[in-house]
Amino acid sequence: MLTRMSSLFLRTLREDPADAEVPSHKLLVRAGYVRRVAPGVYSWLPLGLKVLRRIENIVREEMDAMGAQEIQFPALLPREPYEATNRWTEYGPNLFRLKDRKGGDYLLGPTHEELFTLAVKGEYSSYKDYPVILYQIQTKYRDEERPRAGILRGREFLMKDSYSFDLSDEGLSESYARHREAYIKIFGRLGLRYVIVAATSGAMGGSASEEFLAESETGEDTFVRGPGGYAANVEAVTTPAPPAESIEDKPAAVVHHTPDTPTIETLVDFLNAHTDRKFTAADTLKNVLLKTRQPGAEEWELLGVGVPGDREVDMKRLEASLEPAEVALLEDKDFAANPFLVKGYIGPEALQANGVRYLVDPRIVTGTAWVTGADKADHHVVDLVVGRDFTPDGTIEAAEVRAGDPSPDGTGVLEAARGIEIGHIFQLGRKYADAFALDALGPDSKPVRITMGSYGIGVSRLVAAIAEQSHDESGLIWPRSVAPYDVHVVVAGKSAELLEGGEAVAAELEAAGLQVILDDRKASPGVKFADAELIGVPTIVVVGRGLAEGKLEVKDRRTGERSEISREGAAEALAALVRG
Amino acid sequence: MLTRMSSLFLRTLREDPADAEVPSHKLLVRAGYVRRVAPGVYSWLPLGLKVLRRIENIVREEMDAMGAQEIQFPALLPREPYEATNRWTEYGPNLFRLKDRKGGDYLLGPTHEELFTLAVKGEYSSYKDYPVILYQIQTKYRDEERPRAGILRGREFLMKDSYSFDLSDEGLSESYARHREAYIKIFGRLGLRYVIVAATSGAMGGSASEEFLAESETGEDTFVRGPGGYAANVEAVTTPAPPAESIEDKPAAVVHHTPDTPTIETLVDFLNAHTDRKFTAADTLKNVLLKTRQPGAEEWELLGVGVPGDREVDMKRLEASLEPAEVALLEDKDFAANPFLVKGYIGPEALQANGVRYLVDPRIVTGTAWVTGADKADHHVVDLVVGRDFTPDGTIEAAEVRAGDPSPDGTGVLEAARGIEIGHIFQLGRKYADAFALDALGPDSKPVRITMGSYGIGVSRLVAAIAEQSHDESGLIWPRSVAPYDVHVVVAGKSAELLEGGEAVAAELEAAGLQVILDDRKASPGVKFADAELIGVPTIVVVGRGLAEGKLEVKDRRTGERSEISREGAAEALAALVRG
Fold it and tell me: Rounded to a whole number, what is the distance in Å from the CA of A100 to chain B's nearest CA?
């Protein structure tokens, strides 16, 4: 059905919205695709809804093609299944919780592992029923601490989530591989530039895990990649441990009086000035004190984390390493309550003597010698050797990852980039099957515990991810596969002839099977061209002065290229262009 | 894409679910269309989701065809707009309310008048922008006191809601008429038997209001209709008032000692035995005491309601008349607090002497004489005349409506029937435009207050409404327009020949553009036939013994009629059948 701009529920804006920082947010609001209702909660206006539905349909087609079956769960969910997996608690303040009129506890589903597991348990019983892959495209809710960038990180959003149910680990690997392929097809059809990176599995448990990140400077996720093809979300980068060194040849540890050395830099300068050795920040061991709390627990526990002094602790990496526990920095009252913690001069000795768990960066291996705090104000110890003077309780991935770090696959050094998470696939394993005793009766009449995979695509977020990758200063530039219309017909003038000509061209394009928007407004050609650029339909057809000579102008929104085509046969020519 | 029952996520049940009372609920669960997650909260399994989507698409097509524009609002909504219209309070316990992590108040949208009004105010400003009709097909939430009948009255459900915005009352009438036409087309395409009845407008305010009720014995709504075409929801029936009578010729009111007359019946018997006149229950005036409370108010107010003694008070009619106020029956403590209320013997005199508002049935007109309570235990008064002995504060529609009552259009008497509300259209007027000052700048530069209409269709409820009207003892019988598949191919045997034959037939049907489900399971023909009947695809094709002779059996699910068709050309024949 032809859309006429004279009656379309659309008013474009000349100014960027005050709360918008990233291009997709600015442009989707200015071009009238979405409107804000509350923080992280948006309405979809006609153009936005069309793009959302086209993306949704591409996702659906590929999920159907891979043999997944579509179902739909409610968003309003009872507490009990989430209590059974402890996620009612683990989710913390990210979960929207509510009570019904009878006082029953409910939540707004942030992800549906529990429901899918129970659904399969409810219907299936025999090994002959498996494998099965189920999916839904459904509205989800997360009470984000910092909703941002419009629909890029919202609190109400549309997701495709699917789950595979297999009898064996091999089956799970197969289901995982099929999803990976389907995702490659989907993101390819959407025209996205993306990378597949190794990922952690977040609060959902499980093993193999990869994220699909749309490359974007404004993305929230930092990832790294090496020349040999290694790519990982920064949270998932594992630090290659250097070989252990011999302890025997190391000098004895010596405590130095190091006044006025509150920072690593001043410490290194002091040692270089007062000893005959040459130290760098990488020779120092920085101990950061934190506290952690397990989900549902009342008490916080102290945790010491040691990293080389030339690196910061990356809180997101640290949190990912400790998930699902909460992590917080120590406050003054914590230091006051633990007088053995000498702020600025904390060393392994006091931590371990006082039973504080102490985890170190993987680079801090046996035999390495470090400059670190001596647990006494204005004092540091030099040549404290791992395996001789202290033994950490384990390692932790907490130090920042930097461009130039060695790639874990040994092929060279890492480079860093940013991306938007658009998909996540991972092998959940038996966590949820265990929680609900999801078994199949095997051929030998013995129960077989089912193993699961979990696979998500952020459908509404994709609208913004595509817009991030595909725009210019004038506005949005939609790939043909998701554009709200195939062709934008602009009537460049107010005469009855031009308007009739525009209507006739639009009708022919429609008859040729194209989706058409016709700018039939009584506005100046300048206003209409600006709106066409802002809205971002890939092909713009101008019905203007040339019409009298049987000519139309065609503009490619992406390249800006203009060409003249004959009015006669225009529908066939444009249909061929649109269909590639 | 061909659906094979061997891998379809479907397990039919032989037994009715324990909590199901109505046929649609039993059958939709048994046939594996829906599953219960919590009271009034359901999951859609593959077959159910297909029917839901087909209905949704028919609704969308007709809304688009009438020129309405689709948008989508969030379900999670901030309190403020609903506070502005007082509905945050008025909705009472039917509203799901929740808080976000920062303590902000939110609700799950039960209906979106506020959001639509604000959206139009946000985009439009000139009279040239109007009229506009916007709609969404979106998940809604109501915390029903008694969710029932599966998806027929759920707490999470899918609705189409649209709103018209016009500059004038005439424009609103036109928008209303267009919706009425579109609804007639939609419900026609869905194959429903329905009536359009006059309705009250509920908590949403407004004037002209009609409901579309699917006729069904299990429906919650009672409606009446007269021989001349009058039809109304019982809540909306207006009682024709008889002509006023003369006061002069009435005998004086006399108080009688009437011991042992606790009921209308015993009172009438006593009077017929102890006086020389002949009384019936219709001569008595029954006074019912209630209390009402305005939304947001703390205090309850007493209310007396007088109805002819041969009729009960219909609480739903009473509540509809008093909306949005709450209504409750008096408790013992209320009688104790108001000693002038002599239970069983309440008359108009004590009510009015004590400032209790007193409303009566429209039949209780000036000049009519009544037997009623004398405000004294064991005493009644006879010949209490309206306009002489008491004057009510007004009339109220509170008495039950009965089959046989005169039709308000004067064409005869009413008959009663039951139905399921599937659509509601009404003229809201300026209530919401007033609340948000929605004005258009008129041609004379003066503001014009916009007038609105509100129009709903219960999309998920329609699945159940259709099932209620279209089933038999063996299962569901879908109209072709909404069936999950066009053809159900049953392989009636386990031989490789039959299975291959079934696959080939299914493939040809698919190639002919039909939606096909193939029962390729290793089950007995009896089990397969029973499942096919239960699932309710309108045309069943049996690939059985006849195949060897080039024959297929075709069964019409609704009529049970069987016929043999030639294997050759079967796809064309069936495609012709399906397309009517």
Answer: 7
Query: A372 near A284, Cβ under 8 Å?
Result: yes
Same domain, A388 and A424: no
Contacts of A499 (CB under 8 A, 6+ apart): A491, A520
Assess whether B528 and B447 both reside in one domain.
no
Task: State phi, psi for B391 to the nearest 5 degrees.
Answer: -130, 110
Instruction: Collapse the DSSP code of A152 into the 3-class scheme (helix H, G, I; strand E, B; otherwise coil) and give the result.
Output: helix
Residue of B nearest to A93 (CA): B101
CA distance B216 to B44: 23
Task: With respect to residue A69, please indicate whether it lies within any of the assigned structural domains.
Answer: yes
User: Is the whole model's pTM more than 0.90, yes or no?
Assistant: no
CA distances from B176 to A28, A562, B202, B455, B576 (A): 33, 46, 17, 8, 37
CB contact under 8 A, B76 and A93: no
B-chain residues near A143 (CB < 8 A):
100-101
Does residue B187 sit in the same domain as residue B91? Answer: yes
Query: Would residue A441 count as lying in a domain?
Result: yes
Best of B76, B106, B136, B158 to substitute, by most chain A Cβ atoms within 10 angstroms, is B76
- The reply to whether ipTM tops 0.85 is yes
- The verdict on a CB contact (< 8 Å) between B72 and A44 is yes
A100·B97 Cβ contact <8 A: no
pLDDT, block means (10 residues), chain B with 580 residues: 94 90 94 95 97 98 97 97 91 93 95 96 95 97 88 94 96 95 98 90 63 92 89 87 90 90 89 91 92 86 93 91 86 89 89 92 94 91 93 93 90 92 93 94 95 96 96 96 97 92 95 96 94 97 93 95 93 92
For A223, the enclosing helix (H) or strand (E) is strand A221-225
Q: Which of the four pLDDT bands, split at 50, 70 and 90, describes residue A30?
A: very high
B138 and B56 in one domain?
Answer: yes
Query: Among B82, B100, B136, B145, which would you mutate to test the A interface (most chain A Cβ atoms within 10 Å of its Cβ)?
Result: B100
For residues B358 and B431, membership in a common domain is answered with no
A82 plus A226 within the same structural domain: yes
Q: Which residues of B touch A101 (CB under 8 A)?
A: 93-94, 143, 145
Nearest-CA distance A108 → chain B (Å): 10
Q: Which of A363, A395, A427 is the last residue of a domain?
A: A395
* Pairing between β-strand A451-458 and β-strand A447-449 as defined by DSSP bridges: unpaired
CB B434 within 8 A of CB B393: no
Same domain, A262 and A366: yes
Q: Which residues of A touch B11 (CB under 8 A)?
A: 123-124
- Tokens for A413, please give them: 């050094």
Count of domains in chain A?
3
CA dist., res. B505 & res. B552, Å (int): 9
Measured CA to CA, the distance from residue B231 to residue B413 in angstroms comes to 11
Residue B152 lies in a domain: yes
Nearest residue of chain B to residue A72 (CA atoms): B44
Q: Give A66's contacts (C-beta < 8 A, 6+ positions apart).
A: A133, A178, A179, A181, A182
Q: Cβ(A106)–Cβ(A98) under 8 Å?
A: yes
Q: Is A212 helix (H, G, I), strand (E, B) or coil?
A: strand
- Give CA–CA dist B36/B25, Å, rounded: 10
Q: Dig out the tokens for B472 from the structure.
A: 């038999």
Say if B422 falls within a structural domain.
Answer: yes
Looking at the partner chain, which of A76, A94, A119 has a beta carbon nearest the beta carbon of B155? A76
d(CA B59, CA B138): 12
Q: Which of B8, B44, B119 has its CB closest to that of A72?
A: B44
Contacts of B4 in chain A (CB under 8 A): none
**Residues spanned by the domain of B391:** 254-395
Q: Per-residue b/e over B118-142, b at no fewer than 16 CB within 10 Å?
A: bbbbebbeebebbbbbbbbbbbbbb
Residues 6+ positions from A495 with CB-CB distance below 8 Å: none
- Chains A & B: contacts with CB separation below 8 Å: 139
